Amino acid sequence: MLSTPEEASQLAQFSAVKRSWGSFTSNAEVLIGEYQRKGEVSPANLIAVEKLLDDYQRLVNLLIEYEHAKAQDTQLQLKQIIGYSQLLLIIVAGVALAALTSVGVLMTRQVNGFVSRLQESHEDRSLAQVKSERLAAELIQFIDTANAPIFGIDADGLINEWNQTAAKITGFEK
């Protein structure tokens, strides 16, 4: 059973292409047989085969355009996630560690959500997970080694997280 209307539509398009190719090849065989028997081909049969070939080419082109549009949509989603990553790097300069952690978690969820929509390719999913973990590790290292003191404050107004620079200034180790 197909899980989405999009998959059903794609299957219908593939079936139409397959039927069109079958019609073309069977009529082309008739045309070849006629030529071998008579040494010529009737214009009506030739036009019919040309029409079938045109229909087949049209269906194939539609299918290619559909797959191209689907690939562009996937590329747009990837560009959106990359944009979120770049925005995150800009925010790092002025936001407290607790806020950065929250944004990092949200971004990781977005990456994981994107990856789950691309289950057709296990390799892409694995690559996205590795990049997400690498980005999270880089952000943690960036925050911890930043030359400006960065600290997080809880709901009661108490400092609960700080980086190495804040530790040097205050004398309190993590």
Short summary of the structure?
The chain has 174 residues and is mostly helical.
What report would you give on this structure?
Helix content is 78%, strand content 4%. The longest helix is centred in the middle third of the chain and has 49 residues. The chain has a two-stranded antiparallel ribbon. Helix 3 packs antiparallel against helix 4. It is mainly alpha-helical and 174 residues long. About 5% of the residues have low confidence. It has a domain of 84 residues. The chain is rod-shaped, with a radius of gyration of 30 Å.
Rounded mean pLDDT score: 71
Query: What is the spatial order of strands in the main beta sheet?
Result: 1-2
- Low-confidence spans: 93-100
Strand fraction: under 5%
| H-E string | HHHHEEH
Overall, the morphology is rod-shaped
Backbone CA Rg? 30 Å
How many runs of DSSP E, i.e. beta strands? 2
Sketch the major β-sheet.
Answer: 2 strands, antiparallel
| Helix-residue proportion | over 70%
Q: So how many helices?
A: 5
C-alpha end-to-end distance: 55 Å
By secondary-structure content and strand pairing, the structural class works out as mainly alpha
Topology of this structure?
Blueprint: H1 5-38, H2 43-91, H3 97-117, H4 122-145, E1 151-153, E2 159-162, H5 164-170
Antiparallel strand pairs: 1-2
